[in-house]
Design a protein that fits this description.
By secondary structure, this protein is α/β, with parallel strands linked by helices. It is built from 16 helices and 20 strands. The radius of gyration is 23 Å and the shape is globular.
Length: 498
């Protein structure tokens, strides 16, 4: 029994009751005893946890309950300076003289320790960020370990990147990461920087710093010299102090396009290297000749994975007109089967929205979307009473001008448009200020290759979505960023080649 899609311009209300597709499982909660959360966390500078010179701390909460779980040190300019000095000291000292082979050995150790402590990291990631345990366990932690394994292998082979040239590290790197994949983004940043022989000051996002701080423990356990990795906590001001520190040689940033632009402006006069991985509004295109049920799963994975907190989320669905009714019906049915709830429950598909601020932003944008028109459909899944949750939803029958088709929402909200020809699909997919990723669903190989070549997106997935690999470069076109991370390409932004 499928809800009929309204053709009226008036938004339709979400169904209140589940329509019987949903399978109810008994709760299966992951235990949390493996994790010890300190009531107060200090800064990790020069191999030690030290109190901040600012004497200030701020709260971090579990978004699944809205309750405080710990306090984080707030790094001010002086703290940033101490961290940069520790990184410079390590760069000029033991680390700078270490062979690539020995750096690789240490990075392999990090990867192996991450695997040994995988459950601890997965549970902490879920407690701190609200993502379902099955994602932290099966995606975030294994991929983070993979990044260290992959880059460990490069550490003694860097000369092969540019034969007959001198390849050397850039120096001290300031790295700033967001809250959607806290541990994985830390791994994306740290592994290549360290493999190339740099030292690092890393600033995780203010709502999700705990796994980065636990990673500090791993670097000590692996035997890294003091000061090679420094981890400082704080919000935008701390990040800005790091960006503007005169002794930082490279900034690597993942986050919003607005902050990325600010950073680019503020260091334009310096000779700091910069890589930016910013927002996205990625198109996922289904052709009539696609395997529809597979495509539906890919669309669900593309937009509802990690609550839509994915910069490359396939948030704009483009469907060939002849199959749109079928696709919309199937998606509505699938939406009702998504289990939203306690992220620690192994059955949960969609966990908590990362913060109250983000939840309010999603609600505001969805309200705006309803005013602008289109057919709105939202899952009838009941939401937990406490914590920050939002039921997955979609807007079909919308145009390219619809605000929700143009701006990044960073939530479980899909828009659906139609097209009649491959050229129209390409034009609509490229009609965006962003260009991070795209997806194509079709059984025709040559068509896939032709369309992929015409899409202005850093990554194009064919008959799949949201697949990542340390060997594969990732990055964007236009306002989605500068430079690539991962693979051979990603190493160049951490090296000087003379
Ligand atoms: P999001 O919208 O994903 O939270 P932000 O760009 O606001 O993205 O944040 C990403 C990271 O950038 C976070 O670690 C945040 O603390 C940091 N940040 C925010 N503002 C600035 C700034 N002006 N300079 C440097 N870093 C910043």
């Amino acid at each position: 029994m499928i809800k009929k899609i309204s053709k009226s311009k008036k938004p339709i209300k979400a169904e209140k009751k589940s329509k019987g597709f949903k399978i109810d499982y008994s709760p299966s909660l992951e235990g949390t005893s493996i994790v010890t959360i300190k009531p107060r966390n200090e800064l990790f500078i020069g191999g030690k946890f030290v109190a901040p010179k600012s004497n200030k701390y701020f709260d971090t909460v579990n978004p699944a309950t809205g309750e405080k779980i710990s306090e984080l040190a707030l790094a001010n300019k002086d703290d940033v300076d101490s961290a940069v000095k520790a990184a410079r000291h390590a760069y000029n000292g033991e680390w700078g003289k270490m062979s690539g082979k020995d750096r690789g050995r240490l990075l392999f150790r990090v990867a192996r320790i991450l695997q040994e402590r995988a459950r601890e990291f997965a549970v902490l990631e879920t407690l701190d960020g609200g993502k379902p345990i099955k994602e932290s366990r099966d995606v975030d932690v294994p991929l983070a370990a993979q990044h260290f394994f992959y880059h460990a292998g490069w550490a003694d082979k860097l000369d092969y990147l540019a034969p007959n040239k001198k390849v050397s590290p850039v120096g001290v790197c300031g790295q700033i990461i967001p809250w959607n994949f806290p541990l994985l983004m830390a791994a994306w940043k740290l592994a290549p920087a360290l493999a190339c022989g740099n030292t690092v000051v890393l600033k995780p996002a203010e709502t999700t710093s705990l796994t980065a701080l636990l990673l500090a423990d791993v670097f000590n356990e692996a035997g890294f010299p003091a000061g090679v990795v420094n981890i400082i906590t704080g919000a935008g001001e701390t990040g800005a102090a790091l960006v503007n520190h005169p002794d930082v040689n490279k900034i690597a940033f993942t986050g919003s396009t607005d902050v990325g632009k600010l950073i680019a402006k503020s260091i334009a006069h310096s000779n700091k290297k910069l890589s930016l991985e910013l927002g996205g509004k990625s198109a996922n295109i289904i052709f009539a000749d696609a395997a529809i049920d597979q495509a539906i799963e890919g669309v669900v994975n593309g937009i509802y994975f990690n609550q839509g907190h994915v910069c490359c989320a396939g948030s704009r669905l483009l469907v060939e007109e002849s199959i749109v009714d079928e696709v919309v019906k199937k998606l509505q049915r699938r939406l009702d089967m998504i289990r939203v709830g306690n992220p620690l429950d192994k059955n949960t598909d969609l966990g908590a929205i990362n913060s109250l601020e983000q939840l309010n932003k999603i609600k505001e944008l969805v309200d705006l979307g309803k005013k602008e028109g289109g057919d709105f459909y939202q899952s009838s899944s009941p939401l937990p009473k406490k914590g920050y949750y939002f039921a997955p939803c979609m807007f079909s029958n919308v145009t390219s001008a619809h605000t929700l088709n143009r701006i990044e929402i960073f939530g479980p909200v899909l828009t659906i448009q139609t097209f009649r020809t491959p050229d129209e699909a390409i034009t609509k997919a490229n009609d965006s200020r962003y260009g991070l990723a795209a997806g194509i669903w079709s059984e025709k190989g040559s068509k896939n290759l032709k369309i992929a070549g015409a899409l202005k997106a850093g990554v194009v997935w064919v008959n799949t979505y949201n697949k990542f690999d340390a060997a594969s470069p990732f990055g964007g076109f236009a306002e989605s960023g500068w430079g690539r991370e991962g693979g051979r390409h990603g190493l160049f932004s951490y090296l000087k080649i003379d």
